[in-house]
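User: Sequence in, structure out. Go.
Assistant: Echoing your sequence, followed by the structure tokens.
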Amino acid sequence: MHDYPLTHRTIGHLLAAKAAENGARTFLIWGGRRISYADMHATTNRYANGFAAAGVGKGDHVAVMLGNCPDFLFVVWGLGKIGAVAVPLNTAAKGELLRYYVAQSECRWIVTETALAARIAEVLPDLAAIERIYCLGDAGALHGARAPVADLAALLSTSDTAPPVDAVHYADPACIIYTSGTTGPSKGVVSPHAQGQNIGRSIAAAYRYTRDDVLYTCLPLFHVNALWYSVNAALWADATVALAPRFSASQFWADIVATGATQFNALGAMASLLLKQPVSDAERAHKVRQSMVVPLSKEAYRDYSERFRLTVTSLFAATETFAVTIFAPGDPAEKGASAGHPRDLADVAILDDDDGALPAGAVGEICVRPRQPWMTMLGYYKMPEATVAAFRNQWFHTGDRGYLDVDGFLWFVDRKKETIRRRGENISAYEVEMLIARHDAVHEVAAVAVASDLTEDDVMVFIVRKPGAEVSEAQLVHYCATTMSYYMVPRYVAFVDALPKTASEKIEKYKLKQMAEATRATLWDREKSGILIKRG
């Protein structure tokens, strides 16, 4: 793997160098389409010049709400080449949360697609700062919108000459990515160019990717797992990315075989679903040598690696940070369910509530300090207090709990913060509560995480109804489906007379979690009730 100095760790510098080195070699596979390194460079130059001609300049914020497709990378990298800041939005966002993301990040432009146009149109009247919307495909519901609407493809008519690479600095913001809040709204993580490139560099080296590798991802590009840990890693390794629209357990191995994939990243829930599938010829006909899975139990690590005949890798990371610890090929198999150990990139400490260091084996908050520059976020956008709190006492506090064993391997235990993690999505309990509290029949609400049978969590809510008000569990869930992203919709609902509280009126969520686990078998469960929540 060819290395580049810190000063060249921007997308403009790196993609120009890779296009010169690799030319016609395939960088991206999308269905039957193959896009070379040279084509990636030329197309992102066209997008960069098109946005610049439209008035988008260095430091401007552009919301990008696109599903997995080549244009997602064209747009984000094109914006990066002119120093504009991409704000990738979860394609499940709708209503108040979507409005909040666009408004809080101070975007003045939006890039979206036909399938998502109606959601943009719904919140547009409350977004006075938006100057223009670019749509991939027919604008549909955006026809007649308050802001002008343009065809995204029209940007391709501009020059493919590269913008000046030295106009963008490695410490300049490249993107703002929203991560769930704990006791408040979601926070926008401001990431410099060097952070995403340093991650690609470190992953490619630690996992020993080569130019012959094909890195498959069906994870959403608006999350860093796909964008930084697959796409950027492939770019640094001179490898190929095979991109899929989304995960399908039944189609997965056929896609892997068809693309010639040699590596893929998976969430723990994906691994569980794949293990539940019937044994197929395709799962043995693949060329995959490695799969990065987060998280896996000891039993799942063994079953997954043995059944699919591949090497499992893992890590511990957050949107705000990088691959803090890495479980890499060659590490002991008995540590396979761990998140690996710190390499030369970070110091890791397990701290108590007073930031005192805990010994090996003791569970506390996982805290991180980078050993190299520009490995972490610049801060939370327009949230200076939250930024200072996160970096307390010169350590970044992850809000996750775990322990280091005597050999220095990190083992994740649970979340200290009030974040619910469901199938790869971080869900803010605060935001679930905020949206449900708007229902006319709801007096109080508390959302908590309960363990899922597919690893990670499911969402449960405890509801206190207003006096005399009537609402059923099913009615509440259907209401949630219209007001929040599909993955936030509670699976379990319980109506209670009162929520347990401290003397200072704070809800004692640990008691609610205990109640949930004690009554798990009798909880109202929307899945058992046959209620399906659509992604749209």
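User: And one key feature?
Assistant: The chain is about 30% helix and 25% strand.
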